[in-house]
Amino acid sequence: MVGIAQLQHRWTAALACLLASTCAARADWPTTRPTTSHWAFVAPQRPAVPALKDGGWSRNPIDYFVLDRLQSQGLSPSPEAPKATLLRRVSLDLIGLQPTPAELDAFLNDASADAYEKVVDRLLASPHYGERWGKHWLDAARYGDSNGYSIDGARSMWRYRDWVIDAINRDMPFDEFTIEQIAGDMLPNATLEQKIATGFHRNTQINQEGGIDEEQFRVEAIVDRVNTTGSVFLGLTIGCAQCHNHKFDPIAQADFYRFFAFFNSCDEPELKTPVGDQLKRESEIRYQYATLEMEKQEFEHRIAEKAAAWESTLTGAEKATLGENVRAVLSVAGDSRTKAQRDTIISAFRAASPEIRERDRKLAALKKDQAGAVTRTLVLQERREPRQTHVFIKGDFTRHGDPVTPAVPAILPQIDAPNPTRLDLARWLVDPRNPLTARVTVNRVWQHYFGLGVVETENDFGTQGSGPSNPKLLDWLATELVNRRWSRKAIHRLIVTSATYRQSSIARPQLADVDPYNRLLARQSRVRLDAEIVRDVGLQASGLLCDTVGGPSVFPSQPDGVMGLGQFKREWKTSAGPDQYRRGMYTFLWRSTPHPLLTAFDATNATASCTRRLRSNTPLQALILLNDQACLEFARAMASRVLHEAPPDDSARVDYAFRLAVTRLPEPAEKTFLLQLLNKQLNSTPQSLKKEDQSLAAWTIVARVILNLDEAITRE
Amino acid sequence: MYDDQANLRDITRRHLFGRCAIGLGSIALASLLNESAHAAEKRDMAHPLSPRPGHFPARAKNVIHLFMAGGPSQLEMFDYKPKLIELNGEQIPESFIKGKRFAFMSSFAGKERPRLLGSRRKFSRHGQSGAWVSEMMPHTAGIVDDISIVRSAATDVFNHAPAKLFMNTGSTQFGRPSMGAWVTYGIGSESRDLPGFVVLQSGPRGPRGGAVNWASGMLPSSYQGVPLRSVGDPIVDLKTPAGISELQQRDTLDAVGEMNLKRFVETGDPEIATRIAAYEMAYRMQSSAPELIDISGESKQTLKLYGAEPGKPSFANNCLLARRLVERGVRFVQLYHTDWDSHGGPGQNLEGDFEKVCRETDQAAAALVTDLKQRGLLDDTVVVWGGEFGRTPMGENRTTTGRNHHIDAFTVWMAGGGIRGGQVVGATDDFGFAPVQDRMHVHDLHATLLHQLGLDHKRLTFKFQGRDFRLTDVSGKVIGKLLA
Q1: Residue B146 above 50 pLDDT?
Q2: What confidence tier does A24 reach under pLDDT thresholds 50, 70, 90?
Q3: Spatial contact of B363 and B139, defined as CB atoms under 8 Å apart
Q4: Mean of the per-residue pLDDT values for chain B?
Q5: What CA–CA distance (Å, rounded) separates A363 from B36?
Q6: CA nearest B274 in A: which residue?
Q7: Is B251 close to A626, i.e. CB distance below 8 A?
Q8: Using an 8 Å Cβ cutoff, are A399 and A393 in contact?
Q9: E strands in A520-659
Q10: Which of A422, A438, B40, B365 has the fewest CB atoms within 10 Å distance of its CB?
Q11: Per the CB < 8 Å rule, is A566 touching B211?
Q12: Of chain B residues 375-434, which have a CB less than 8 A from chain A?
């Protein structure tokens, strides 16, 4: 047992804190501001870093801004988190993986002043950094592996996903990153990669249902593109102006359709994106096909001759199996047959010839192979002749109002070009004069590190949004992003090396009254891991993880029956070999029947852009972590790993198991508790089992308990 | 109601003061927790699904929605049109279809005007109310005095997936919460051992669009529908996995609970208390859900009433399960049955295929109303029967003649929970093309349902991207005629 007295002692403080937070009123929901001077529509000015007495706490400018705000409320920051906590936090945040026991030891033993900064640099250089931050972006990009709507057929889109991972790993500046995704196809001499990037806006759903009006769904996809561009880059709810003028923000309905016009002149083709020797393979298939096709033509040229030869070999029994009409023609002498009669014989010959059938089968198979020989991906491609865009009256695409030309919302600085195109739009999005994009972008980065953005309503910087909790900090970060040539790695490094980030996440009673939601950041926040990372923790602790980066999406095991929930009962064929242990982000995302672990832990189903996941905490999550076959497999593999890799005594094994799943040593009370659990299991396993099996069974329960801890799936 | 996300976090925080102490009896926290619950807030908002009062006294507690997926033909069942039968084969007057859009538009674009198709089904009047019901629905005909037949339902969109989304969320845009999510967000659920919003399905395939139909949209996923499956575990991963004994399962839960509690006390993070409660509810579900789906203990008479057979998944079994769910306090139950898509042609003809799906549903749907009534549950439960749209009065020529999707008028029936029985509401023109009286748009249906549950559809809102979203978007009215 954990010491009860000890628990109760600490409880008093925790209770006081919780009571206070519960009673706290919603203090600071903002009131509507006048629109013309709305802060977010005015470009950020670089604020001066506050001069403060900080007792040596601050590590970089971020800390001065945060401390300034804290001091104005009479608050002080929290102490730095323990080293082990800090290491697990920064690893999960930057690469979505836990530190290994060896990495933990190395860090704990590194007494140098810059030990932590060295870890940060190692993580930023890891290929898994692109996976973690790529996944955040892919949520916003509504990336999925199927077409959505009702039929929800599979699509090949992973080349776009890999483009994102790669671009982020290379620290492609965010301005280029934006331009290539919005209009890569329109760049001069666009490369294949730049075209692949336009897949950003091909992640819209495709309705394959029968009986649809194609134009309706083409328009719906464009509406999605407008809304997504608005919320991802501008943090604006432009979509609210689809049917009428925006109720709160200065966006007219015509603004919506002017923006729509940028996206109304694209075609939506599939692009061949060869991987490895696919092109060679494709040309081989093409050659085989052509050879066979030539043979076929030669054969066809002499078909009459061949048919006659066939006829001459027919036995009486064979003739009897032929159709009545054929038998009738056979009785007519060869040279007195009509054309129709000759054709009848040829048809009969075709049907009877194994040679012809075999060749046709081969040709069909080759054709299919050829179609699938090269990986394809969905892209945008600008049309030569633009389409005319109209306002749709009340948002109804069948009711055309006034014609409009492409333009950005009137409230924002305008594009400096006579007939702006999608490429001009892309460049405008990342023009430093644009007041929104840099702010919105750094704010999203910030939200992943602290659970909340500086602007909590990260997709609404309009007048109904929450406003920044620390305006100067936001503007300093936004200008810093631009000054650092839009390098996201630079911003990540700045944030994670700040004293603000490195604080402990333990709640403090005195903060509960003033800042129940931790907007002021007098401490860090505990944040439950994203669905994919919940899986990765299990994979990693068990040692099963296959950490290959990129490639086609995979099919890890999932409970039976999940695929029957959509219109078509599609097959879910569990991937073979290491692919079934790939990171959660590579799980094939069927939009209408997503993997249950993803759904239960709030992953997006990719039907719309998701710029912030809500975090629920439900019994369905508990059922999965407790009972899912995959989770049990993780526990068993982890138990086996502990038995093989740890020094052979139970105390050392508990230490090792704890480090594998939560990156720290258990406290004495925790260790005692787990050892008691272990002994209880050892005593209750059937004595008929072999000793190793008893031991494995008991350790499986211990591993299962540790993997089910709130701490295991939480970044503290 | 809870009009912003900050408030939701309050709810999360308050989890602590509700049920999380259950199962941790060994630790003397329970009484502390209870005391603090009083101190903190009179209203029990401890659990995201804990029952909460609505805006005004409710007439009904629960909803069972029988979603007839694919669009049932009202003209073969409820909307009797002698004139249409008389003019069978004539072209529909231009005035009806001018400017209208239909599914499969290209199939009659540039072709001759479509021809009227009279139903071949016999209709007669039933019950004290004398409602017209066809021979296709003999059992439903037997309960007409308990139901309100609405012949004037209307929707906005004519393809299956968007129309299903619209019927469920009041929007054709993805990312909005479904009815069941709104309801459980608004008033929680009485059940402590089962999810508050449960989805069942039967028929040859799942509903088009799948999980988006019961998604929680921008609401927290605590409110999303939980599919109760007829094959395998009723809920994903409900069963303790093979190789883990019941004792080991309990040991695991206890150990996880204790260690989480320790961490909770150390960190002061109320999310951990919520997780402790979630694990305990998961454990209760492990026994409550199998008990729920085991219908073998129902009397022979009851099984016969529904046409249910233990172990053989069917719409009938699901109707019986729906009763068992509301009996156990589950707030919102949705049953999907496919496939009502009667275009004509193989698998979709208006003859055998249509008769089959009528047979699969008629008896059990009627039995559900009868059974609920016998048990005194009908007063508290609104039953809704209907599809995402109806069918055209004009024939659609495929290999056989069927009917196309139709959004202007279709039939929905409702019963129980303060809905007036024994009446027909709304009427359509001579061809059954459009309502001429008491049109009930999907938004109106939603407004009425929420009203019966004590919720004002204009006040049940959720703030997202700066806007107060609601199930009825910017319209919807309660249909007074439907109310008892």
Answers
A1: yes
A2: very low
A3: yes
A4: 86
A5: 76
A6: A617
A7: no
A8: yes
A9: 527-528
A10: B40
A11: yes
A12: 404-405
